[in-house]
């Protein structure tokens, strides 16, 4: 069954690349200087195969160059398919209404092609820009004049792999250390589902060890931190001086209770299912404020105490317009700060510091 699904997806992907190639050729052939159609087909073939290898060999290492080629072609393919598809549809409708001159159609197609290239370059660049957003959150109202302040940094959805590599991780670590945090939280999807896609795991271990904070770094799993290479993921985390919490809790600085959850819907194995935390919560009571790392914001209804702060990710805030409208409609909170009322937990959802699928952002920020 899985083989049939892969064959169907692969076939549709190749057909859509053929469609894109035909349209690019129809534009280029209008110019007298262009005489080599095989160049276009050669480029599309190489990048399409790289994408297929990257997508389907999801537990293997296809190599850093092939992985990057395949990932970035996915961005270019997506933009081309959407923009050319819409342009084609609009022109067909327009032809039924009025007469279109060939020069006018050519200019429309040239404009569409330029738009693909501009959005591809912008989206790829935008994905690498890291924006810091600040929130001031009071978890427990102080009973006296003294109030403990903690400078916490939250990141999520690094999706370490072919594109989000050791260089990108180094940039993230530098950004975090510049904020001089007391504690660092990673709310899931540290990996992109394939440990073998890491081209320099030892380098990543060194980068994680550069994280500097008073109380250390705490991690919960996300839905992509799973699968055949899960144990290798866990080993890297444990070797990187990161405290992994798998439906567990720990007291930090004798002042806060940090809770980390397994993902509610992992894509593959995470060495056992998610456990309920309610019994553990009853045992510890509500004297200490809780900071809960739970990757998917769809689970916030599991928590009900006013002294709980839930830190999530997962949504990427849609990553690419108009999918941000979809995540906003689907999730109670897909990005930023949320609190139902003063007796409810507080929630902060990160848009993620990495990307999944096409390595680009349009209309959203890392």
List keywords for this structure.
alpha/beta, 366 residues, 12% strand, 9 helices
Number of strands: 10
Tell me the span between the first and last alpha carbons. Answer: 37 Å
Low-confidence stretches: none
Strand adjacency order, main sheet: 5-6-7-8-10-9
Mean pLDDT: 92
Order of H and E elements: HHHHEHEHEHEEEHEEHEE
The SS-based structural class is alpha/beta
Sketch the major β-sheet.
Answer: 6 strands, mixed
Tell me the Rg in angstroms.
24 Å
Helix content: 40-55%
Number of distinct helices: 9
* Molecular shape: elongated
Strand content: 5-15%
Would you kindly provide a written description of the structure presented here, covering whatever features stand out?
The chain is α/β, with parallel strands linked by helices. It is 42% helix and 12% strand. The protein is built from nine helices and ten strands. It has helices at residues 2-28, 37-56, 64-97, 102-127, 166-178, 201-209, 230-239, 278-284, 323-330, and strands spanning 152-155, 183-187, 217-220, 242-244, 248-252, 256-260, 290-293, 308-312, 336-339, 346-349. The strands form two sheets. Strands 5-6-7-8-10-9 form a six-stranded mixed sheet, with no helix packed on it. The protein has a four-stranded parallel sheet with strand order 1-2-3-4, with helices on one face. Helix 1 (2-28) runs antiparallel to helix 2, helix 1 (2-28) crosses helix 3 (64-97) and helix 3 packs antiparallel against helix 4. The radius of gyration is 24 Å and the shape is elongated. The two termini are 37 Å apart.
């Amino acid at each position: 069954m899985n083989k049939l699904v892969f064959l169907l997806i692969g076939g549709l992907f190749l057909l859509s690349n053929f469609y894109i190639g035909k349209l690019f050729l129809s534009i280029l052939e209008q110019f007298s200087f262009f005489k080599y159609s095989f160049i276009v087909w050669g480029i599309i073939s190489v990048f399409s195969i790289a994408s297929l290898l990257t997508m389907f060999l999801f537990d293997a290492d296809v190599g850093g160059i092939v992985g990057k080629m395949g990932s970035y072609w996915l961005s270019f393919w997506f933009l081309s398919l959407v923009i050319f598809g819409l342009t084609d549809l609009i022109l067909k409708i327009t032809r039924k209404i009025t007469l279109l001159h060939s020069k006018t159609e050519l200019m429309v197609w040239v404009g569409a092609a330029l738009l693909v290239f501009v959005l591809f370059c912008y989206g790829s660049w935008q994905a690498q820009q890291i924006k810091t957003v600040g929130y001031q959150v009071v978890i427990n109202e102080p009973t006296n004049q003294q109030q403990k302040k903690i400078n916490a940094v939250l990141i999520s959805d690094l999706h370490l792999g072919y594109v989000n590599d050791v260089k990108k991780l180094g940039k993230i670590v530098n950004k975090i250390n510049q904020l001089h945090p007391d504690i660092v939280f990673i709310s899931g999807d540290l990996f992109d589902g394939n440990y073998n896609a890491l081209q320099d795991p030892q380098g990543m271990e060194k980068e994680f060890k550069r994280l500097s904070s008073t109380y250390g770094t705490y991690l919960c799993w996300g839905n992509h931190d799973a699968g055949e290479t899960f144990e290798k993921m866990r080993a890297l985390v444990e070797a990187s001086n990161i405290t992994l919490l798998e439906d567990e809790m720990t007291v930090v600085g004798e002042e806060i209770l940090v809770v980390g959850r397994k993902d509610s819907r992992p894509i593959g194995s995470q060495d056992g299912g998610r456990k309920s935390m309610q019994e553990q919560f009853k045992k510890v009571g509500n004297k200490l404020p809780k900071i809960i790392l739970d990757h998917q914001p769809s689970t916030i209804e599991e928590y009900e105490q006013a002294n709980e702060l839930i830190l999530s990710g997962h949504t990427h805030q849609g990553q690419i317009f108009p999918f941000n409208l979809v995540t906003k409609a689907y999730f109670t909170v897909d990005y930023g700060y949320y609190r139902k009322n003063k007796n409810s937990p507080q929630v902060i959802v990160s848009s993620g510091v990495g990307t999944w699928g096409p390595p680009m952002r349009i209309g959203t920020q890392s």
